[in-house]
Specification:
The protein is of the alpha/beta class. It is built from twelve helices and 13 strands. The strands form four sheets. A seven-stranded parallel sheet has the order 3-2-1-4-5-6-11, sandwiched between helices. Helix 1 links the parallel strand 1 and strand 2. The chain is globular and about 55 Å long.
């Protein structure tokens, strides 16, 4: 079975943010694809953490993307052909508590990565992860397209919208020649899956509540989001990276990777479905005023489907079941089933005739 045209086998890849949730899953997948992976990130945030449990065979470098010397040193060591930039301050509520750290990590950190790419001749393709929250949110009942206006109410969303402008500026200012690296951004959000223990996220908070034998207080049970398993958006990132490595310059732009419309559900709906797979889960609505977060958000992914051939493989129920199984298994044994779930997902993608499996 060939995945992503075997484009990553032996490919020198630099991944930032590998100690985070999405980054750790991407590092695991890249190693299974046979890539030569160098990673740069801060120390994992607390224990347990997915990265330490994975024990991935990569060059594991620790550093802050706000430090340009640390970023450049990682590039000098890796000499990457492909760069996936996932390192970021990724939490809305934390961005309210420390807005300057949020802005410096997300904007200047990204600028340091792009500048290192510009100064490293081996780089051929770059994928920068932002978020579905980059759009000026009008609480529309239809999905946002890549051409819709950028915006951001909270510091996190606004900083990620600024990243999109930064990337576009680098692309237009420095990478217009035919032999220049190809640079794209990817927008996804409300990603679920095992191994996420971040603060102020729905499922990690729920897992901690179960471990402590208490009910979780839910901030916004009626808020609606496009929920998807982490492997879904990562398959899109890897597919786009493959096509950029193959030199498809017209694809060097912004891309949405979200679930099917039926996976756009309220927090309360997701909790009810999740409880079917993990009956010990319990919650109640929180009282009091909460910081502003979007009430309705949905991505239109027609562009990814029509131009990349990408589509989600899992239903919402399947993604929730995989997530519950991962945490229940870890809760009971201390062991992880990440690679088993990756193999199962690839089989599901093969059965669904996903374009990246052959």
């Amino acid at each position: 079975m060939r995945l992503f045209g075997d484009r990553y086998r032996g490919c020198r890849v630099l991944l930032t943010g590998h100690t985070g949730f999405k980054g750790s899953w991407l590092a695991a997948w890249l190693t299974r694809l046979g890539a030569d992976v160098t990673c740069l990130a801060l120390e994992p945030d607390g224990s347990p953490n997915h990265w330490d449990l994975l024990e991935c065979p990569v060059r594991d470098l620790r550093g802050d993307i706000r430090d340009p010397a640390a970023v450049r040193a990682a590039f000098d060591q890796a000499q990457p052909e492909m760069v996936f930039h996932l390192a970021a301050q990724a939490l809305v509520r934390r961005s309210y508590r420390d807005p300057l750290q949020n802005w410096s990590s997300n904007v200047m950190g990204t600028a340091h990565v792009l500048e290192a790419c510009r100064q490293t001749p081996s780089v051929r393709a770059v994928v920068v992860a932002t978020t579905d929250k980059v759009y000026a949110n009008h609480e529309w009942s239809w999905g946002y397209r890549e051409v819709d206006a950028l915006g951001g109410h909270d510091p996190y969303s606004a900083s990620k919208a600024a990243c999109e402008l930064l990337v576009d500026s680098y692309r237009k200012s420095f990478w217009q020649n035919d032999d220049a690296p190809l640079l794209a951004t990817v927008r996804a959000g409300n990603v679920i899956g095992g191994g996420d223990w971040s603060e102020d996220r729905l499922i990690p908070d729920l897992v901690r509540a179960v471990a402590q034998g208490r009910a979780l207080h839910i901030r916004s049970p009626s808020a609606t989001r496009p929920w998807q398993h982490v492997l879904e958006c990562l398959s899109g990132y890897l597919l786009l990276g493959q096509r950029l490595l193959e030199g498809e310059r017209v694809l060097a732009e912004a891309w949405n990777f979200g679930p099917q419309a039926e996976a756009n559900r309220s927090v309360a709906d997701v909790l009810a479905k999740l409880q079917r797979f993990w009956p010990q889960l319990a919650w109640q609505a929180a009282a009091g005023e909460q910081p502003h977060e979007a009430g309705l958000l949905y991505l239109d992914c027609a562009k990814s489907r029509s131009r990349l051939g990408w589509f989600p493989v899992l239903s919402l129920e399947q993604g929730l079941e995989m997530t519950a199984d991962w945490y229940r298994h870890h809760h009971a044994s201390g062991q992880i089933i990440t690679f088993d779930q990756l193999a199962s997902y690839i089989e599901s993608a093969r059965a669904a005739n996903a374009v990246w499996v052959s």
